[in-house]
């Protein structure tokens, strides 16, 4: 039986700054030149990057945003809830998992510049997923939310923001 502990050990996952565990599995060797990227990027970026990401019950990935689209892929465990505050201020929750009859999806793309957080659904022991980012992830493009600031921007989502910020 697959457990969170066995996945952490097998894939040598490390603690992630936003919560959970991760391991980078791919970083393209080629780059997109800075001049070819939208102005929100400050330098060249790898074509694409990918990670494994694991969250256990009782933990969460705090609200954050990045400057690229991020495609989430479900691998093992149970349902992961991905909460997105769109650039228009709408809140949507995606159920990432393998129960397609319950409306879960195997993949979902979080658009660039949207605030998002994730957490295991109720009765979920762990969720093991992957994230692919293009243009590739760079910590220069990462912003961890401050609960007070994000609540000022989106007061209608105060409860979830306060619950899923560190």
Write a structural description.
The chain is mainly β and 166 residues long. It has a single domain, classed as Jelly Rolls, CATH 2.60.120.10. The chain has three helices and 13 strands. Strands 1-2-5-12-7-10 form a six-stranded antiparallel beta sheet, with helices on one face. It has a five-stranded antiparallel beta sheet with strand order 9-8-11-6-13, with no helix packed on it. Strand 8 and strand 9 form a beta hairpin. The longest helix has 7 residues. The model has no long low-confidence stretch (mean pLDDT 97).
User: What is the name of the CATH architecture?
Assistant: Sandwich
Q: How many distinct beta strands?
A: 13
Query: Beta-strand percentage?
Result: 35-45%
Structural class: mainly beta
Number of helices: 3
The coarse overall form would be globular
Sketch the topology as an H/E string, one letter per element. HEEEEEEEEEEEEEHH
Distance between the termini: 32 Å
Helix % is 10-25%
Q: What's the arrangement of strands in the largest beta sheet?
A: 1-2-5-12-7-10
- For CATH, the homologous superfamily is named as Jelly Rolls
The CATH topology annotation reads as Jelly Rolls
Produce a short descriptive summary.
The chain has one domain: Jelly Rolls (Sandwich), CATH 2.60.120.10. 12% of the residues lie in helices and 41% in strands.
